[in-house]
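Changelog-linked ticket: zinc ion example.
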Amino acid sequence: MLDDLVIKKILCPLCQKKSSLKASNPYRPFCSERCKLIDLGSWGSEQYKIPTTNSEAEREWEENETNKDKDND
Ligand SMILES: [Zn+2]
């Protein structure tokens, strides 16, 4: 029971997202197959872009730029 509490929640070694060491997570200790593959480097030679939250960050950046323009008024 104690073991279950301890290993219940961990952070993915790669992206630091919440992960699980439970047997129900086939990619443990990683949060997903993607992180596991990245760590293994099995796709290092492929031109595969990691879908991160960059697009969201860029969108926020654009919004900030737009707001700046408005401030000039
Ligand atoms: Zn991860």
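Closing comment: Example verified and attached. The chain has three helices and two strands. The chain has one domain: 2-71.
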